[in-house]
Amino acid sequence: MYIIMVYDVKEKRVNKVLKCGRKYLIWIQNSVLEGELTDAKFEKLKTELGKIIKKDEDSIVFYIFREKYYSKREIVGIEKGELNNIL
Question: What does the DSSP 8-state code read for residue 62?
Answer without folding.
Answer: E
